[in-house]
Amino acid sequence: MAISRRTMLGGAAAIGGTAAFTRRARAQAANTIRIGVMNDMSGTYKDNTGPGSVACAQQAIAEFGSQGFNVDLIFADHQNKPDVGVSLARQWYDQGIDVILDIPTSSVGLAVQNVSREKNKVAINVGSATSDLTGAQCAPTGIHWAYDTYMLAKSTGGATVKAGGDTWYFITADYAFGHALERDTSNFVRNAGGRVVGNVRTPFPATTDFSSFLVQAQASRAKVIGFANAGADTISCVKQAAEFGITRRGTKLAALLMFTTDVHAMGLQTAQGLVCSETFYWDLNDKTRAFTRRVLPKMPNLHPNMIHAGCYSATLHYLKTVKEAGVAAAKGPGAEFVARMKALPTDDDAFGPGMIRADGRKIHPSYLFEVKKPEESKGPWDYYKLLQTTPADEAFRPIAEGNCPMVRS
User: How would CATH label the architecture of 31-147+284-364?
Assistant: First the structure.
């Protein structure tokens, strides 16, 4: 765990503090917003979340500037374990953290959102994917920011079926995220007249060799092998499929959740031709390029993906709401503050204008990309060709279909 220099200095001074200092410290604490970034700093999802998410949250704080209150940021590694995430969330909320941000790994994201509901504190899921966060397990204290399994299934899965991939076999990470992504994609496949001919669940995060699963998928003779996983798992699946020559035999690979950071790890020679969906791409327009230029000094070995950008966007909107509602409101009931966040339109250089629905779903467009061939790329991180844009009002699951208890009539 790391903590800001301001907080460290405050702690050191408190050791030998006086009554006057204690009063000043209490006043400062009452006027300080504390943000906790919880994610995977060392495992499967490190490059897709990790230090990049922290850097982008820090960028938002720097851009927001001095607005009459202080902002401290801490971060910790939840190790992709729900019990670790729950323990951290309880500790952080009890110690005065006002909002927990990022929370990748859907099993952890769902668990932390439950703690936020119990404690009546704010949780903003950016890295978690499961659409259940704004569905049956929605919470008045929770917001789901960058993307979800429904959006991925509709964009990537739907496009693959339209291109002729009407029989599917899934290789699925065996936890909440993988299950939700397979479920949502299967629904789109079947609704489009396609069939799911089989699936296999792979232990998470214990699997590194996917060869036996790929052999099973190939034996099914499905036209599409859908990877309902992410991060290092997706990278391994695509690389091992290339080694086996699976695509040369006519089978399509559908990386249902893939990021620019994954493409960078695979290399264009391996990733070329894959399609994927993101809600942010650094080279999408002038504003995304400007944001990327500003944040790159804080993350020199990566370009931001939609999770990183989501942490920037969510932090900025949270702080804008604090400015409008006041620090006392931010430290008050989480459900009331989230309602204020929903009432305030969103707008930033990463995602453009948007809004937060009653079920907590952040709304913005999604984009279907194809990975470029090596000869098409103009340089490092020039990886995507835009195939289609899904408008904001169509990109995510209709609110009436989510079964969120907060919005049932």
Answer: 3-Layer(aba) Sandwich (3.40)
Residues 155, 158, 164, 168: is their CA dihedral positive or negative?
positive
Say what the pTM is.
Answer: 0.91
Angle at 275 (CA atoms; ends 270, 279), nearest 5 degrees: 120
Give residue-wise pLDDT tens across range 1-33.
444 434 433 333 344 455 555 556 566 788 999
CATH architecture designation of domain 150-278+365-395: 3-Layer(aba) Sandwich (3.40)
Over residues 33-75, the pLDDT tens digits come to 999 999 999 999 999 999 999 999 999 999 999 899 999 999 9
Burial class of residue 27, CB neighbours in 10 A (0-12, 13-18, 19+): exposed
CA-CA distance, 278 to 259, in Å (whole number)? 7
Q: Which H/E stretch holds residue 227?
A: strand 224-228
Domain boundaries, the chain: 31-147+284-364, 150-278+365-395
Structure tokens that stand for 406 in this block: 């907060």
Cα–Cα distance, 270 to 171 (Å, whole number): 19
H helical segments located in 16-49: 19-30
Residue type, 312: Y
Give Cα 221 distance to the centre of its chain: 33
For 72, the token pair is 């401290």
Amino acid letter, residue 187:
N
Alpha-carbon gap, residue 12 to 200, rounded angstroms: 53
